């Protein structure tokens, strides 16, 4: 059975950078749509970036455009999120996800039939 494990979160100051990793096991992520999601206490989980499986189309939510970069390393079987110029509002728990019913569209990642296989996530805290 496939499994995703997020890592790389940390406490940093505004303007600093982090790279989040999502290591996949039990399946090859090369052929799947992949997404990064962020959850802040009191708010719904938000899809902030996704990467398609066929043409490397990438989506970024407006607040992270130009600062975050999603990438996939098929050799390492891992997904990454490079986060530069971090802001206080980037604080949250970050999750990666993939599923056959996940699509990556111009409006962001969307599960067509729902998703409940979230991992433990990785905490990113940006504060001065």
Description:
By secondary structure, this protein is an all-beta fold. The protein is built from no helices and twelve strands.
Q: Quote the distance from N terminus to C terminus.
A: 41 Å
Order of helices and strands: EEEEEEEEEEEE
Radius of gyration over C-alpha positions, nearest whole angstrom? 14 Å
For the biggest β-sheet, the strand order reads: 2-12-9-4-5-6
Strand percentage: over 45%
Shape: globular
As a percent range, the share of helical residues equals under 10%
The structure class reads mainly beta
Major pleated sheet: 6 strands, mixed
- Give the tally of β-strands: 12
Tally of contiguous helical segments = 0
List low-confidence stretches. none
What integer is the average pLDDT?
94
Summarize this entry quickly:
With 128 residues, the chain is mainly β. The protein is built from no helices and twelve strands.
Secondary structure layout plus pairing:
Blueprint (H helix, E strand, L loop, with lengths): L2 E5 L3 E2 L5 E8 L8 E6 L6 E6 L6 E3 L7 E6 L4 E6 L8 E7 L3 E4 L2 E4 L10 E5 L2
Parallel strand pairs: 2-12
Antiparallel strand pairs: 1-3, 3-8, 4-5, 4-9, 5-6, 7-8, 9-12, 10-11
């Amino acid at each position: 059975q496939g499994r995703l494990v997020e890592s790389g979160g940390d406490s940093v100051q505004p303007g600093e950078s982090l790279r989040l990793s999502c290591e996949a096991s039990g399946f090859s992520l090369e052929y799947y749509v992949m997404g990064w999601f962020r959850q802040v206490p009191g708010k719904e989980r938000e899809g902030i970036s996704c990467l398609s499986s066929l043409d490397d189309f990438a989506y970024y939510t407006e607040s992270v455009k130009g600062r975050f970069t999603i990438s996939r390393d098929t050799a390492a079987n891992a997904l990454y999120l490079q986060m530069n110029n971090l802001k206080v509002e980037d604080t949250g728990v970050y999750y990666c996800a993939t599923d056959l019913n996940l699509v990556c569209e111009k409006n962001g990642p969307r599960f067509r039939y729902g998703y409940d296989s979230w991992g433990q996530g990785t905490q990113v805290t940006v504060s001065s």
